[in-house]
Amino acid sequence: MTRVVFNPFSESFRRNPYETYSALRTTGPFRSLGMWIFTRHADVKDVLRDRRFSSALIPSLVHRRLDEFGMSCPEVTKLGQKAIVFTDNPDHARLRRLANVVFHPSQLESLRPLAATLVQQHLKSFATQARGDFVGQVARPIPLKLLLSWLAIDHEHMEAVATWNHAIRYFLEPGAVNRSQFAHIYQSLTEFLAFFASYIADRQGRAGADLISQMLVRTSKNDGFTVEEAAYMCVMAFVAGAETTQALLGNAMLLLASHPAQLNKLLSGEVAVSRAANEILRFEAPLQMTKRVAMEDVAVAGVNIKANDQILLCLAAANHDNDVFADADSFDIGRSNSELHLGFGYGAHACLGARLAQIQLESLLEEIIRHRWQPVVHEAPRWQRHSQIMRGLDELPLDLQTQGETVA
Questions:
Q1: Is the pLDDT score of 404 beyond 80?
Q2: N or C of the chain: less Cβ packing under 10 Å?
C-alpha cells in the first residue's frame, strides 16, 4: 500500500486541501494520526448512517483532557451530554424528535423574509464603500442577528454573544485545547448559559413564536425540553450555526468573485439560486471534517475497524469525489447533482439547522442577482487558522461593482 502523508496542520493544506484530498481518495481508508481516515463519498456516507459508529467521541475526548488537567468543569461536560450532535440513541432520538418540532422546515422558512432583510441591509451598507472586509461587515453579523431575532433577543447583545460563542466552539476540537483555553471555555459557557437563563425564565408559560418560547411549550409524545435542555439548545444554535454560516457566506462570495463565468450564469437566470447554493456547499463546505468512534468491531469499506477506533470523516474530500461528481474539482453552479453533497453531514446526525444556513446563502445570492453585483477582490483573502475542521475566511477585502440595471 502506498504510504499516505496526511498533515491537516500544514499551511499548504490550509490554503488548498483539495489536492491532498484527491490523492487520499485513491488509497481508500487508511490510518494516520491515530485514526482511520475516510475520504470517499460512498465510504463517508456509509459511516455517517451506520449506528455502530458513535458521535460521542468529542465529549469523551473532552472528559479525558479535563482529567489530564485535573479540572472540573461540569457545564462543559454537560454540554457533551445535552447537545444533539454528540448524543446517541436513545437520548439522541428523544432530543431530535423534540428539536424537529421547533426546527420544523415551515418554521425555518418563516425566517426567510428576515434573512433577506438582513442581507439587504448589510449589502446595501457594504456597497457604499470603495472597499471593505466582506467577512467582518456582512458574513459575520448576518447569522448572529438572525439567530438573536429568532430568539427574540436584542441585537445589542451581538458582540457579547459572538465572543462567548467563539470561545465555546473550541470544545469541538479538544485535542488542540490547552488548560487555560479550557478554563476560558468554561467561563464563557457559564456566562452564556446564565445569559439565556434569564430569557428562559421570562418566557416560561408563554406561547410566543420565538425559539425559546417554542422550546418551552411545544411537546412531542407528551414530552418536552427541560429548562436546562432549552438553555443548552440555545448555546448550540450559535455554536453550530453562527461561525459556520459566516464561513459559508464568505466562501460563496469568494467563489463568485473568482469564477466570473459562473457568476454570469447566476445573474442571467440560467441557473436557479437553490442549485447554485448546493454547488457552493459542495465545492467549499465550511464543515470539512467530522469524527466518529466505533462501538464494536466492524468491517466497512474493505477495512477491519476495532471497537474504540477513532474515525475521521473528510466531508470535503467526499464532496470532491469524481465517482459521484463529474469533474469534481471544477466549480459549476449548474451541476445537476450537487444536492448530493455531504456539507451538512448525513443520516440521523445531519445538521439540524441546514435549511436555515441555506436560506441565508440563497438570500445572499438573490440580492446579488437583484443588484447585478460583481464582487472584485483586491487583496489575497486570509483563511482562518483557529480551526482544523472548519474552512472559512477571516478576511475578504473586496468591493461590489454593478453590472447593468438593478432588478426591481
A1: no
A2: C
Cell numbers found for residue 298: 466492524
Q: What mean pLDDT is reported for the chain?
A: 93
Q: Which of 319, 315, 279, 383 is nearest to 13 (CA)?
A: 383
Global pTM value: 0.95
The residues spanned by each domain of the chain are 48-310+350-402
Q: What kind of fold does domain 48-310+350-402 have according to CATH?
A: Cytochrome p450 (1.10.630)
- Cell numbers standing for residue 116: 433577506
CB 132 within 8 A of CB 397: yes
**Phi/psi of residue 400, nearest 5 degrees:** -110, 120
Cell 457533551 belongs to 80
Question: Rounded to the nearest 10 degrees, what angle do helices 260-268 and 273-283 cross at?
Answer: 160
- Asked whether the bond before 90 is cis by omega within 30 degrees of 0, the reply is yes
Pairing of strands 298-300, 53-54: unpaired
Q: What is the DSSP string of 151-181?
A: TT--GGGHHHHHHHHHHHGGGG-GGG--HHH
Pinpoint the alpha helices (H) of 294-401: 315-318, 354-371
Which of helix, strand or coil describes residue 325? coil
- Chain segment 179-193, per-residue pLDDT in tens: 999 999 999 999 999
